[in-house]
Design brief:
homotetramer, 24 strands, 7-stranded antiparallel beta sheet, alpha+beta, 16 helices, 6-stranded antiparallel beta sheet
């Protein structure tokens, strides 16, 4: 159950445009990399809420008729990724409920660290939960709150939760966006004409021709209605600890995150990596696509030619059927093919963004060597990953992270490279301008967790599922 | 919204048999006439609950693989009928929730008359509702109750509701059946070997070779667990007011309802009708299938030959596509065809169970006349229907009932019959043995409602629906 | 493969009405009893053919949008039943092909007896077959014919086939109906206004308000186009041998078949049965629904009260899941329930239309006895079934027919009845008026086959199927 | 109809491996870029053929259960792309038929130029066609052929067709691969252990660990059976005219096509382009993904930094719903986002592989300029596209090709670039080694068609389609 709380997601919201749902749909399209398992949109025409949610990619969940039914001037949307097999429709967001004060929908990116605690308290006083997602706790807190205005009830609820959240709420007459005081996950504010747009990343704004205005600040609550925008800061101040992994891997390179272009940050990490971990080599190749900017930066600084030595098959689906007659490096091979023409006889630097379990790197190194590379030097544009994330990025348990239990040399031996180099923690911040403050959470590289996790794993006496659910 | 609360349904429960779900499925099969819009089964293996629900007929909702997944020694099931277009999966029963004390499922036949009142109270204190079905109120009351044992919490909840209910509850370790103090809707108790069975009608017992034991009494709560059966009577006594319309139309003729065989009751109503409303005629024909037993009784008493002058097409689906080039009597014609060979030149008595709006009777009379009948005498084996039901039978609003605003002569004129006769209220009880007490609700024929209806129609400010729901 | 050639079906055609497809759809609805496995309609607007076919009931295969797409002034339709598990979409009719002369569609009721022979010849000269249905042979013969007009090519093709066929063809500009010279299967001609209608039974005409004109005669070919109707008799004369089993069981009772009302024929068979095979009894009950008219006739002649001692569940689907813990008489019990209230202590005559394998009758007799009947007398309104049908009715192989290897006494013993009586062959024709000629095929009761069967069962070296077909 | 004959496709075949279907499936996976509209596999166990085909991506069409059903030691597969809206299942390959000699399946990449002519001839002699795909002509020719062995009949049929074909046939006991005498489309031969593999490109061999042996030669017919491999050259010799567009755009960069690595060819074209069409600029960016190798070559030769100035969204589906409130450059924008951080103030060279209609290039140029580029220089790594392809690559009609009617300057003006440069025809062959012969078809750049096209567009009097087809 605890695992099911961990999710990476994308959220969007549009208020004040007659084609709000269509723009929400396109924004989710642009944010598809943040979650491919399920998608949903809730719209409103000022009187009631209309929702559609489904399992799969945005393009599969929606069609023109559905978008037409999602009429109205405001809409919020959500993309979801989850590691567990439990991809149930009932866990799909945005959540929509009807409670005493009317209809309310919510889309959440992040992860609460006291959700189970709060859930137990709520269940003891008679609340009935429908899902296994922490977001539902927020809704029950809102329903139980005594505030008069929706925004007051939301603030009251958020005062009780701890952890990471970038949230967008919708009622028939207002939209509310909120970001946790630490600013763990990104959330930006933009405009199309008079309409207000919020989204996880700026690439969503780009696609719909919206103008980027600014980040929604850590701890800020933005209330949007026919009366305009209001901004609140109802929570006690906290140190900013934005997720640095959005830069390393998660965000789209063309997005502006925490007010910096991701592609440029990654290229800089590649340059810094070349400084810290140089290699005698003939060519540098990326693990596509995420390793491309860092490999370009590495090549530039190291003066090495950049080549696409690994070609990616972009049609790879979620699953494929493996024959019993085992294929070498299968799993990696369906996604990547090593080009012997490019690699034969060469000393090759491979640049990747991170090493998690080590098994993929191992397959890549063997594949490149099998294609004829004379030497293989693996370079990673981040420090060794040693800690699980509890704030909304799906990482394996600490035990599964190879760097949490192995030295760099042992990892090098495991993956079979001639040399292996990680970026230093300090180098990871080389994108900062001189004097610029460091407001990042890098717990996955340091195990310094900015907020303690109070949810204890509890064994669930009751496994409730729908036999027919897919 | 109020309309959506009204439903006819069938419920079943089996406890203590290794193939509980399979028997529940067959029982729902036998009770299909009580609801064709949706079906569901929840089973348990003692540890957790497994459920499957779907829209459509029992045969379409379940298959062998699904039944296999519904493993365990106990199961409850539900068939549902609803008039509104809102046949949403989320309104489908059994309802299953996880709350502080574990998992709970419930299947409900009947209609509460104070559901909205209770719902408003529960929403005010923070409860979040998922459906528009009154049954959900009962679950929230159970979740909010402070009792220790499940059965205590159920009793506490039922003390707050008023109206008609035949209920079956399931938790991982126990099954609870309950019937309202008035005994509005039927519920019977049976056995297969050591297993306990409850069902709306005995035809469900017959199909699975279960032995009929007795009715569950009005106001009785039956608790079934590994420890055996316990019976409680926790509510204040109330006069028995069982729905007489189950005899007239709703129940299957081969069922035993309120400890009488329905077929024999209907035949007696036909005999009584022949006494009260004789007709000079050559043949008597039923409106098949529900009018058959009464027509047999009428023919027997009147000494008239019984013929199948109307043939029913049993493959008729829910909808069919009508051409613009109108077909006479379409609507009735897709279900019934009048046989001119049988009817030509004859004086015909048509026996039907009731007249609701009068439009169907009008089409039948015209069709029979068009097929060559010389005279058409309509006889109805119940009194004129003048009141809506608020206890679980779907009847139109009082305004739509032709007999609520028209005299018998005016109805005869409208349907175009040569004569029209209804059974008297007194004659409707002619099946009673001499001295036997009358414990029936006949509010649809008398407008004498045994329990006042406190739910006031409220306009819902929020229409919450899933655009993609089917 | 041979088995797959045997099918019962319903066919319809409408020419000259702007809502032709909608009327075809309703006609198929009325003919649903002739085939429940698949349905299809092909329409034309004068330029090209549009088709839609699907597996399942008419109501499931078509919806309003599909009917709208099937635009045009003419349409033909087909219902199909098949015993084999191979219910493939590709075997569904009407068949539609494009060949040198344009588009052609065909719907077929009946069974050819030299299809395999012809198919081998056609394959040897390069024809490629798509299905396992004998009808496809006719299409290939038409494609290979050298005639100029469509109707000439059709006649040329039909001259080569032997067996039973009631056929309707459609091209963009004409409709052709044809019936084999023996008149094995029914086919009638009617009118709605200026439009021409053909259908297997008159119940299809009744539903759409079409006027019945006459049978299409054995050996007649009817050509319908904008120029009007033409009738041809291109085949050598043959003795009429219409299927008597349409009267016994297959046709709808309200249909006019071979110019007689089926209900009245069945009632007469019941009367005759009472004369030939009387029984000392208290009541007579039918096996519903097919046994009802004969039971009424039996009761009338025998002076016995008619009762519905067996109640039919009309929601029974194609399959249901049986528990391992066997249920007595399962199979029959899901369809029929015996009413002990009606049967207890009684001497009961059960009237059914025929006995095939005997297993169903056995279950019914046991069920009636178990419900309390004192004596059970089975009466069958046809002679013992001793031969398979090769002309379009699906009967088991001769070996499976209990009467082909057992005496009446042995069958009585097997089914467990106190007495058993069949109608005599002569009595089966008691519906004929004095002097009226007998033009029937009763091969299933006599093994006198009017046309020899030349197809020899061949083992197919190639089993070609689509893994994904449903 | 003529248009429907043009298709790009991928084909595979495996003979002699117990997991043949699974390997065929993975090969189709690797060849997904050659066709995304439909996929199919036919396998055999030596006795009969089993097939599964569906619309969509390989990953969507197949699952584990289906692959299990496709049992046997041999299998062939097909991926299909088609421009017309008529993506009907019946047009999906491999085609499977049963004819006089048994079962036969075929998968085809290429396009025949005398298919209509042959079809008319076949229809005149009674053949009935099921699809609108030229491949069906080959099957009918085989069925009508008189040869004894399958391979003889195939050769006889291929002698009658003209055009482009890379074909794989399967019968229960043999596999046959054939390539047209001109060698228009690629086809390679490989091995896994004792099993023989054929595939359109070597990337399919790589994924399944098969060893590449050689091209199947133009005009070669390869017969594979339990007896081993035999090679035939039954056709008159013809000049080799392999499609050069496979190098420019169509093939996967990591494939070996016509015995050269595609990535290296493309890089060389980029280098040559830099020589022929230099530009004063700051950076070079590709149109991803197809422009990447040429852009790397261009940058290398021109001494310009390579940057990913356009980021591709890899989750783009076939369709998306555009709002009415128009978005600038929509269509391109859903696939590509221009990074202002990278482009701002720069003089930018954009490298793309070809210009077809010019509308996409126009949107890209505007988008790059809008993102802040100071100058935009478009460079194309092929000559202007001026001719439609009739040999199996889907290109628009000649009229739609902007270069067929506009000068380079006019195109530059239309797309809004500061300069525009194409590769020369001669430069397109700069990848040839000195003295190496030129055996390519470049008709799309030169309008010199190696084989005349005899099919004349005919208007089809009959449009035959299934209303319910998807």
């Amino acid at each position: 159950m605890f695992d099911r709380f961990r999710e990476e997601c994308g959220v969007v919201g549009i208020f004040g445009h007659p084609e709000a749902a269509n723009f929400a749909y396109l924004s989710l399209y642009a944010l598809q990399h943040r979650g491919q398992e399920a998608a949903g949109i809730v719209s409103t025409n000022g009187d009631y809420l209309v929702s559609h949610r489904g399992l799969g990619l945005v393009a599969d969940v929606f069609n023109e008729e559905i978008i037409r039914k999602l009429a109205g001037h405001a809409a919020i949307g959500h993309n979801r990724y989850s590691t567990s097999g439990q991809t149930l429709l009932k866990n799909t967001q945005p959540f929509v409920v009807e409670y005493g004060r009317g209809g309310l929908a919510v889309a959440h990116n992040g992860n609460l660290v006291n959700a189970l605690e709060l859930r137990q308290r709520l269940e003891d006083s008679g609340s009935i939960f429908q899902s296994n997602v922490d977001t539902e706790v927020i809704i029950h807190l809102i329903a139980a709150s005594k505030g008069e205005r929706t925004v007051d009830r939301i603030v009251a609820a958020l005062r009780e939760v701890r952890g990471a959240y970038s949230l967008v709420f919708l009622t028939p007459r207002e939209m509310v966006a909120a970001r946790d005081p630490n600013g763990f996950r990104p959330l930006v504010l933009g405009r199309i004409k008079d309409a207000v747009v919020v989204a996880s990343e700026t690439c969503a704004l780009d696609l719909i021709d919206a103008t980027y205005e600014r980040e929604i600040e850590p701890g800020e609550v933005v209330h949007v209605s026919a009366a305009g925008i209001e901004s609140f800061r109802p929570f006690p101040a906290a140190p900013r600890t934005s997720c640095v992994f959005e830069y390393i891997y998660f965000a789209r390179p063309d997005s502006r995150v925490y007010d910096r272009n991701v592609y440029e940050v990654r290229k800089q990490l590649g340059r810094q990596l070349a400084e810290e971990q140089p290699a005698e080599a003939d060519i540098v190749i990326p693990v596509p696509d995420s390793g491309v900017p860092a490999a370009l930066g590495f090549g530039e600084r190291a003066g090495l030619p950049f080549e696409m030595g690994l070609i990616r098959n972009h049609y790879v689906g979620r699953t494929f059927i493996e024959p019993q007659d085992a294929i070498r490096h299968f799993g990696v091979k369906v996604k990547l093919n090593a080009q012997s023409e490019v690699l034969k006889g060469k000393r090759v630097v491979i640049v990747d963004d991170s090493i998690v379990r080590g098994t993929t790197s191992r397959k890549i190194v063997h594949m490149v060597r099998h294609a004829g590379a004379r030497e293989v030097h693996m370079r990673i544009s981040s420090p060794p990953t040693i800690g699980s994330c509890f704030y909304g990025v799906d990482t394996p348990t600490t035990e599964e992270l190879i760097a949490s239990t192995h030295s760099v040399e042992a990892i090098r031996d495991f993956i079979g490279a001639d040399s292996l180099g990680f970026l230093s923690e300090r180098g990871m911040y080389s994108f900062l301008k001189p004097g610029e403050g460091n407001g990042f959470c890098a717990a996955c590289f340091t195990r310094r967790y900015p907020i303690p996790v109070s949810d204890i794993g509890r064994t669930h006496q009751l496994l409730l599922f729908e036999a027919g659910d897919r």
